[in-house]
Every structure is written in structure tokens, then in C-alpha cells.
Amino acid sequence: MSRQVYETLREAIVEGRLQPGQRVVELDVARQLSVSQTTVRAALDQLAHDGLVLRFPRRGSYVASIEKEQARHAYEVRATLEPLAVRAFCTDADDTAIKRLEELLHDLRETAARDDLTGFVEADLAFHHTVWEASGNTMLARVWPLLEAGTRSFATVTNRVYYQDLAEVAAEHVALFEALATRNAETAERLAVEHVNVVWQRAERADAGGG
């Protein structure tokens, strides 16, 4: 039941029926959906983990705003540093890292097939985190958590809004993985930058009225 409540609330947030800053009252949701407050609380915990809801002790739960300016800065930094990360990965990563990427690519496909947005975003972020961490550049590994925090909520929404389905996003990782696995640095650099930029470009076109 908590999963159903989660999906209902997430859809309301993504579609704008629940606005940023709006309070989500557990008792009201429980009554509307004919479930217990405990069930609603579990759903809100998951939404908070996804970055779509902010929870404050004794103050309640509120729809998080999607900080587009913060996300834009994070994507700009990623577009600049991704080539460095994948180039170093192709040179220095061991076979264990390649195997981990293969597992995460499988997770991306599986969660996409189930339309599991939460699991998909986790696998997506873990994929890129693995590349940065296995690059051998300790500074990149330290920077990644800051970029992840700046893009998590934005990615959760954009994966649903700007793509027809999650399988389309998963497919973008296939060629990138193949380039990384064969240590083709030139191709990996190009694909990594394209992958980072495509989401932002779709969001910009949508905001400009281009769909």
C-alpha cells in the first residue's frame, strides 16, 4: 500500500498538482486514499529519499522545489569534468570496475522495465559515481557527492517528464558502457558529454515552448 501511495503522491508532484512548498498532511492523505497514516508516512519517507519531499520534525512534510539553477550549475560542472573522469577510467580502472558498470547497466534495464523510477535514478547515479570513483583521481571522487546532491531531485523529475519512458534513458548508457569497457577514451568522452547535456537541452527546449 505504501508503494501505491508513493506513486500517487509522486505523480501529483511531477504533474504539478502538488506545488513546491505545499504542505502534505499525513492525516489528509490517509483519509483521501483510505489508508493508515503509517502507510502515508512510509510513502513520504521514500519521497524524501528521492528529494521530492522535505520533512521537518514537528513541522510536517512539504513538496520540495526543484532547484533548477543549482541543477544547471551541477550539469555544467559535470559536462566539464565527465571527459576527465571517463578518460582516466579508460586508462586506470580495473576489471572489477567494468564488472560493476555491467551490473549497474543491468539494473538500469531492469528498473526501466518495471518503471521503477526510484531504483532507476539510484542505478543511474551509481553508474556515474562508479566511473568517477574508479578514475583514480581522488579529487573527482570527492567532488561527485556534491554534484549528485545538485542533480538527484532534478533527475528524478526530468527522467519522467522529458523522456517517453525510462528505457530510453537506459539505452543512452549502453554505448557509453561499451566505450568504457573497451577503453575507447575518445568515444567515451564524446558520449559522456552528450549524455549529460541531452537532459538539460530537453528541459531548456520545454521551457522555451519547444516541447
Concise overview:
The protein has 211 residues and is mainly alpha-helical.
SSE topology sketch:
Elements: H1 2-14, E1 23-24, H2 26-33, H3 37-50, E2 53-56, E3 60-63, H4 68-92, H5 95-113, H6 117-133, H7 138-161, H8 166-181, H9 185-207
Antiparallel strand pairs: 1-3, 2-3
Helix pairs in contact: 1-3, 2-3, 4-7, 4-9, 5-6, 5-8, 6-7, 8-9
Terminal CA distance reads 34 Å
- For the residues shown, what is the average pLDDT? 86
Helical content class: over 70%
Biggest sheet, spatial arrangement of strands: 1-3-2
What is the annotated CATH architecture of the largest domain? Up-down Bundle
**N-to-C series of helices and strands:** HEHHEEHHHHHH
Residue share in β-strands? under 5%
Inertia-based shape: elongated
Largest sheet: 3 strands, antiparallel
CATH superfamily of the largest domain: GntR ligand-binding domain-like
Spans of at least 5 consecutive residues with low confidence: none
CATH topology group of the largest domain: Four Helix Bundle (Hemerythrin (Met), subunit A)
CATH class of the largest domain: Mainly Alpha
> What structural class is derived from the secondary structure elements?
mainly alpha
Number of helices: 9
Report the strand count: 3
Taking all Cα atoms into account, the compactness measure Rg is 18 Å
In total, the number of domains comes to 2
